[in-house]
Amino acid sequence: MSAGDEEKEILLGINEMVKEFSRQGKNSTQKVYEGYHEWHVWRKSFKDFAQMLFTWDDAELDDINKAVPVRSKNIDFTTPVQADESMVFFDPVYRQIQFENDEDGKPAGKYPDVIHGIRVTEDNSIEVNLFAPDAKSVSVVLENGTEELLYRSKKNDGYWEKTIGNPAEGFNYVTFMVNGTPVVNPAAPVGFGYNRAVNFAEVSERNFSWHELKKTDHGQIHIHYSCDGDGQVSMNYVYTPAGYGEDNCDTGRVCVLECAADERNFCWIHQGKIANIMDNLSGEGRIKGIMIIMADSTISDDIIGNITAIYGIKDSAQKEWFKKGDNESWTSCRHRFVNLMCGIQ
């Protein structure tokens, strides 16, 4: 249990909890840090907590040399799920912190809901907003190359806005342009394409939903670090379905995904929605026990072999290869991937 030294009421409560744990014969640890209810206190608390959590007596800290059974959890989604699922999915970009003080001068931060940089409406139009009070011109370039000019908002001072009707369904890169220069809108979902950070919009598809987050058993995404002969360290992502490593769940089948030259392997997670697709296909019995390796276009056979060996898969095992085209949209890529997965079973 932890708190800042200025959080007097919380400290009193912690002291009572320590006494209660002691009365029940249970151990507890109390930590107090300089500060109030604020970020640096929480960061220090988490650091100490993590060290305690992973360094108990008899902890096994060696690398796992084979696949192990995992527990899957069926999640009940009782609230609408954001369609974008970007890298800040659980900390939305349009929730901006305001550092304020209360009447006693103590920190009292707030998280106001600012104007969304990109919002998809119920009729699948795209509303775009950008705060650029000193700009002379603002526009957005859609993935199909169409450029849309924004207009100064009459309601929100300093903002530029526009509603774009009939956009392409699915994933759409949206490049904001200020005075002719591409910029990233911090109040909109951010992805990666064209070898740079870029905003995007996720428009619902009428006849395709395999990529959406649904109520089903969910697999896991693992990160594997590799080092080439030049000492360059890279990360590769691996998806294993729910229950992988258990009896009748591990088929030894592998599919290697290779991203486009101007994108990175993590795009398969946030833009390709590969984990969602695999979860949903597995949940409906369309596929079974397939491991996915998400790779850059430069991955070597040696690295792939090292990764599969960790999961007990022989190097001679058959592997499916799937490459995203350099000019292919993520929407098209998702559709092709589903067809491939359903076709190889």
From TrEMBL:
InterPro entries membership: AB_hydrolase_fold (IPR029058), Ig-like_fold (IPR013783), Ig_E-set (IPR014756)
Domain of life the protein comes from: Bacteria
Designated name of the protein: Uncharacterized protein
